[in-house]
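Researcher: Let's do a round of design. I'm pasting the structure tokens now; please hold your answer until I've finished.
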């Protein structure tokens, strides 16, 4: 017979993302109002689980947080408890300390754990599920690069911010006849650039999945000039790369499960374009963490709420080891075993790239 659930806990891992608080709120409210569970939150992701640093979550704690970006539980993108930096005999060494976490859960009487995160965080969730912990995953990332769900929460807010940035850049581009580049996030996936580029009326979209040729970008600028359009807007995914080169690495975060941080491609490209395009001034803008911060969009508030409610329903049904997901218009779930290692990238021959090309957007290919 299944053990009766009394106490559940939540943790948020990886980079912050609009909608995290909406999930925390939906989980807490559903757990308390529908099932009478006690709810706790571990602070700073898996680090809190290791340090047994947890706080009670009540209807009051989660009041007023639905729209707010960030996470009231704080987060960490470094703490993989299966490969964790600890001090041993005066030296820092990496060790599997996951048993400490399992013991902490037992000690506190936590019957089920909801883990909200992207690839790295969910990999550990899968590994804890393999160790017998009652886990439910919730997919978060502005990058929208998890194949197991049609949409991760946070993505919609990010493309909204990027689209607004493109709208704003248009006014300066047009007034000064400039070429304006906007660098957006997304790691190795070009979703943010692609969708904001279509919505924000970009002339060129550069994504990691379609390596670019600078001459093709110049061709597009010239084509526009011939039509009397003396400015151009280029949206560049941070992971975009030239045909004969590689992505621009900004820094390596040694103790992160995903250590490479991209950044700087738009500026690099702006400098190269300046040398080749004579009659325009060129400027680049890096949108950076602005696309990850601030209030969640209406869509993300609703998606996060649906995910949070579903996560608690799965706990009630004893369907552990799964991640909630969106399939078409329905909320569903998928085994964590099928989530990890399956990333979703832009298909260069897919519908979105095709429609963008049909309306004249160049991908620099
Ligand atoms: O995965 C989300 C994301 O914002 C990526 O788009 C970006 O490459 C990365 O995280 C940035 O990470 P950090 O906040 O550690 O700089």
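Researcher: That's everything. Go ahead.
Model: Designed sequence:
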């Amino acid at each position: 017979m299944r053990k009766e659930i009394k106490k559940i806990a939540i943790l948020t891992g990886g980079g912050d993302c609009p909608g995290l608080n909406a999930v925390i709120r939906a989980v807490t409210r559903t757990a308390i109002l529908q099932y009478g569970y006690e709810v706790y939150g571990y602070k700073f992701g898996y680090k809190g689980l290791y340090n047994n640093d947890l706080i009670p979550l009540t209807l009051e704690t989660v009041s007023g947080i639905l729209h707010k970006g960030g996470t009231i539980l704080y987060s960490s993108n470094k703490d993989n408890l299966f490969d964790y930096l600890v001090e041993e005999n005066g030296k820092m060494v990496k060790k599997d300390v996951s048993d400490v976490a399992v013991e902490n859960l037992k000690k506190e009487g936590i019957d089920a754990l909801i883990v909200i995160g992207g690839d790295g965080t969910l990999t550990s969730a899968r590994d804890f599920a393999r160790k017998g912990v009652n886990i439910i995953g919730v997919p978060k990332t502005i990058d929208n690069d998890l194949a197991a769900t049609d949409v991760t929460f946070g993505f919609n807010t990010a493309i909204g911010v990027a689209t607004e940035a493109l709208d704003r850049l248009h006014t300066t581009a047009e007034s000064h006849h400039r070429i304006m580049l906007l660098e957006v996030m997304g790691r190795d996936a070009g979703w943010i650039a692609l969708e904001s580029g279509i919505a924000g009326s970009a002339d060129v979209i550069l994504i990691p999945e379609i390596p670019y040729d600078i001459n093709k970008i110049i061709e597009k600028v010239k084509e526009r000039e011939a039509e009397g359009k003396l400015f151009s807007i280029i949206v560049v995914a941070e992971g975009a790369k030239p045909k004969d080169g590689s992505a621009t690495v900004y820094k390596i975060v040694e103790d992160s499960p995903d250590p490479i941080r991209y950044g700087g491609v738009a500026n690099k490209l702006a400098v190269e374009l300046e040398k080749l395009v004579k009659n325009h001034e060129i400027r680049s803008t890096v949108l950076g963490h602005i696309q990850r911060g601030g209030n969640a969009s209406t869509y993300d508030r609703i998606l996060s709420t649906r995910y949070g409610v579903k996560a608690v329903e799965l706990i009630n049904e004893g369907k552990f080891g799964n991640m909630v997901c969106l399939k078409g218009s329905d909320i569903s779930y998928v085994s964590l075993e099928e989530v990890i290692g399956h990333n979703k990238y832009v298909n260069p021959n897919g519908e979105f790239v095709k429609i963008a090309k049909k309306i004249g957007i160049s991908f620099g290919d």
